[in-house]
Design a protein that fits this description.
The structure holds two protein chains of two kinds.
Chain A: E1 7-12, H1 24-32, E2 37-43, H2 49-62, E3 66-71, H3 74-87, E4 95-99, H4 101-105, H5 111-130, E5 138-141, E6 146-149, H6 153-164, E7 169-172, E8 187-188, E9 193-194, H7 195-208, E10 212-215, E11 218-226, E12 229-236, H8 251-255, E13 259-261, E14 270-272, E15 274-275, E16 287-288, H9 294-298, H10 303-307, E17 320-326, E18 328-331, E19 336-337, H11 341-345, E20 354-356, H12 357-364, E21 384-391, H13 406-421, E22 424-429, H14 439-448, E23 452-455, E24 458-462, E25 474-480, E26 485-491, E27 493-498, E28 500-501, H15 508-512, E29 539-541, H16 551-571, E30 573-576, E31 581-583, H17 593-597, E32 603-606, E33 611-614, H18 624-628, E34 634-636, H19 641-651
Parallel strand pairs in A: 1-2, 1-3, 3-4, 6-7, 6-18, 7-10, 18-29, 20-27, 21-22, 21-27, 22-23
Antiparallel strand pairs in A: 5-30, 8-9, 11-12, 12-17, 13-14, 15-16, 19-28, 24-25, 25-26, 31-34, 32-33
Helix pairs in contact in A: 1-5, 2-3, 5-19, 6-7, 6-16, 13-14
Chain B: E1 7-12, H1 16-25, E2 34-39, H2 47-55, E3 60-65, H3 76-93, E4 101-105, H4 111-128, H5 132-136, H6 139-142
Parallel strand pairs in B: 1-2, 1-3, 3-4
Classes of the chains: A alpha/beta, B alpha/beta.
């Protein structure tokens, strides 16, 4: 550097968040004596406009060329302060942050210890910033195309919103049809809209939209690149039906002699080996289930082929891979209903009239196995039904969290049972949770309709009768915690309302380098202020993959995710990371160790000069080449050895 | 105060540093003995960083990266693991306890785990006592920052 470091240090109070624990005045005073520090201040809120303006003014009036802010995590406000530096003409990389909130004041009990730690962390930043170098950022163009992963209501809504803007969308769905869980529901709470009636028009819109490439029976296999320029490999499973030729006439389905349980109907009905999952499927063209198909199992049959007029059956079809390039990715992979052992605890799988919520939805659905008539296993219509909330939910043994939707869908069930059968309904809940527009009113309505709402978690469901009234029925054993009494309620049918779980088998999070929480749901960038962003720039979240939520919230979040993706596409450019690796050609011995280590193939070997060279466009700045380089020629900019060493010295200095 | 161990923790930006942030956001208290240095990837951590920390007065060094398969840079954490094993062997040759350095995987959602880890590792280092080469050096010289 041509000029000596002139450092400004700013210690933030963050209201009482930091100043309540850390003696900020002492921290600022200690820094004043560090070499290169021109001024050292403390201020109530550094991130506020006056705080940022203070930095800008000081840079201009005191000729500062380095800035250190001791405040919150750099993940929170590094960008804010880098922006202030840039405004005042100081390179953004002459800025360093000391994390004295998340890593100190919020985690340390003792005030003296917290202050000492704050001094150490800030000192580390000051010593480090002295040796910083200005770095250039490059502008990289953003591709306009957007990838949406998952074709439930979240993915559908996000895809349509993006497509309506004129940008192209690739919608990838692993099942043969889009629609997700919502397509399987009968009614939606609290309005009792028919689920299919409001969903299928949107599904059709996706299927016919000129800006949407619908990729069903497909899975994302590989994601490379970064914000604005993702290279995605999508695997298309073999469908054994050529959808370009198929007219969807259904002759093949009719002729297929094989019947297997329908996944769409929770196994309550049968489908053929060649099938469309449900009548309104999009695309409305069949696929062959290889495991069930007689031809694939025995080499004989081919009935579907014989009756297919457009000759669309393609037994020889192979799995294929398609590569697409997109600028942004929206994750809408949804959820699965809890299917753990809490279900069998309440007799599911043991008693035929203990059914799950999803089975109930299908039984109630006009296109379901009973054409919408709620029947028991023996075909009778139930006279009394118990609905058990919180199956597997709010329970440390299973899922600790509340799934937010189960109380409401259980109340919806009560209404449907009453409406369709007139049966008596008993709802067993832990707490009734109805926070939402019209939800509490819906709860009141169900109570007025005569459902018995009993506050108490059910202990067991049994068929062991102790009196003639209980004979041949299911007995729900529970405690009414409001009345303080033990209950035995004999009923004909029990509906279990399980919570929502994250997809355990999904590798999407790993492919996208997104973090998931302990329950398997994607972690948003900030729980309040960046609810659809992720830590991976250019990847956004929509729907239940981020956490359980109802349909209105899912749709709202999907539109938000689409807006974020579109904001990126409209901006058209992103700043590429300046913190890349570099190799000093004078020092490099040409050992090629770095070439083999680089995960992005960003280092090549210049055979003429016999040295390794970094392609900065490909480099992501992980620094593994710098760590491995035996001669010190490879260095990670902004994380050079000297910077780390300075920081180590600093954090240990008190 | 001086008897308290000093620990330098190298945390990768994407998982572990975020996990440590979460410990803060969740207000989970842990020992101030652990001082965090951020690197973009655990694959950036050189054995010399650890030796530097031990030389500068640290009694233990904690290295945290993303869980296997979750590395933001694909496989930096595996590289960290390889270097860690090499380093442990090297420490033995220096006459130091290998247990003074620990490698752990901490995800962005494991704030609680990070705090517990910080405490338990500090306890372990306390049991090992101050770093042995401290006792042979010149006290005033070593304490110079």
């Amino acid at each position: 550097m041509s000029h000596e470091p002139r450092i400004g240090v700013y210690v933030c109070h963050c209201g009482v968040n930091i100043a309540g624990v850390v003696d900020v005045k002492r921290v600022a005073a200690e820094m004043a004596s560090e070499a290169g520090v021109v001024l050292s201040r403390e201020y109530k809120f550094m991130c506020s406009t006056p705080g940022q303006e203070m930095i800008i003014d000081d840079i201009q009036s005191h000729g500062l060329n380095r800035v250190v802010v001791a405040a919150c995590s750099p993940r929170m406000h590094e960008g804010t302060f880098q922006g202030a530096c840039r405004k005042a003409g100081v390179n953004a990389y002459f800025f360093q942050m000391a994390n004295i909130r998340e890593h100190d004041s919020w985690v340390t009990l003792d005030k003296e210890e917290a202050t000492r730690k704050a001094i150490a962390l800030t000192r580390a930043a000051v010593r480090r910033v002295r040796n910083h170098e200005p770095l250039e950022t490059r502008q990289v163009e953003v591709r306009k195309e957007v990838l949406v992963i998952g074709g439930g209501i979240a993915g559908i809504e996000a895809a349509l919103t993006v497509a309506e803007s004129g940008n192209h969308v690739y919608l990838v769905e692993r099942e043969p049809t889009i629609g997700g869980h919502m397509a399987r529901f009968d009614k939606t709470f609290p309005t009792l809209d028919c689920s299919a009636c409001i969903l299928t028009p949107k599904m059709n819109a996706v299927g016919s939209h000129p800006n949407i490439t619908l990729m069903t029976s497909c899975e994302v296999e590989e994601v490379k690149g970064f914000v604005g320029n993702f290279d995605v490999k999508v695997k298309r499973k073999a469908r054994y039906v050529d959808h370009d030729k198929c007219t969807g006439c259904g002759a093949c389905v009719e002729k297929c002699p094989v019947k297997v349980p329908s996944e769409f109907d929770e196994g309550l009905s049968k489908r053929k080996a060649i099938y469309t999952p449900f009548p309104q499927a999009v695309p409305n063209k069949p696929v062959i289930d290889r495991a069930a198909c007689t031809y694939f199992r025995t080499g004989k049959c081919r009935l579907c082929e014989r009756f297919c007029e457009p000759k669309a059956i393609a037994f020889e079809q192979q799995e294929s891979t398609q590569e697409i390039q997109v600028g942004a990715i929206i994750v809408a992979t949804g959820f699965e209903f809890y299917r753990g052992e809490a279900l069998s605890w309440y007799g599911h799988g043991r008693y035929p009239n203990v059914i799950t919520a999803l089975e109930f939805e299908r039984l109630n659905n006009a296109s379901g196995p009973t054409e919408g008539v709620l029947r028991m296993a023996d075909g009778r219509v139930p006279q009394s039904v118990a609905i058990l909330h919180c199956i597997g939910s709010r329970d440390k043994n299973y899922q600790e969290y509340c799934s937010r939707v189960c109380c409401m869908y259980s109340l919806k069930f009560a209404h449907l049972v009453k409406e369709k059968t007139g049966a008596e309904v008993f709802e067993f809940y832990i707490d009734m949770r109805s926070p939402g527009k019209g939800y509490e009113e819906f709860h009141d309505r169900i109570r007025e309709e005569g459902a018995h709402l009993i506050r108490g978690k059910v202990g067991e469901v049994t068929d062991l009768a102790v009196n003639p009234e209980e004979q041949g029925r299911l007995i729900v054993v529970a405690e009414d915690t409001l009345a303080g009494s033990r209950l035995r309620v004999p009923v004909d049918m029990v509906v279990l309302s399980p919570g929502l779980s994250a997809h355990r088998d999904s590798k999407v999070a790993q492919l996208l380098k997104c973090a998931v929480d302990k329950n398997g749901f994607f972690i948003e960038k900030h729980p309040k202020l960046a609810p659809v962003d992720t830590a991976t720039d250019g990847v956004f979240l929509a729907g239940c993959c981020q956490g359980p939520k109802d349909i209105p919230d899912t749709v709202a979040q999907s539109q938000a995710a689409a807006a974020k993706a579109l904001a990126l596409a409209t901006r058209g450019v992103v700043e590429a990371e300046g913190r890349t690796a570099c190799i000093d050609p004078e020092v490099c011995a040409g050992c090629k160790l770095c070439v083999s280590l680089c995960p992005y193939k960003a280092i090549s070997f210049d055979t003429a000069k016999e040295i390794s060279v970094v392609n900065e466009v490909l480099c992501k700045g992980c620094g593994t080449c710098a760590a491995a380089c035996p001669s010190g020629a490879a260095q990670a900019r902004h994380f050079k050895d000297v910077h780390i060493f300075n920081e180590i010295e600093g954090v240990l200095a008190l | 105060m001086t008897n308290d161990p000093k620990i330098v923790a190298f945390l990768c930006h994407w998982c572990s540093y975020t996990g440590a942030d979460l410990a803060g956001t969740s207000r989970i208290k842990y020992t101030p003995a652990v001082r965090i240095v951020r690197v973009m990837c655990s694959g950036r951590i050189e054995p010399s960083f650890v030796l530097k920390a031990l030389k500068e007065g640290a009694d233990g060094v904690l290295i945290c990266g993303c869980h296997p398969g979750d590395c933001h840079y694909q496989e930096g954490n595996y590289k960290a693991l390889r270097r860690f094993h090499m380093l442990k062997e090297m420490l033995g040759q220096f006459g130091l306890e290998g247990d003074r350095v620990r490698l752990e995987w901490v995800s962005a959602s494991e704030g609680d785990r990070f705090a517990k880890l910080a405490d338990s590792f500090t306890e372990e280092i306390r049991r090992l006592g101050p770093l042995a080469w401290k006792r042979v050096g010149n006290e005033s010289e070593r304490r110079v920052a």
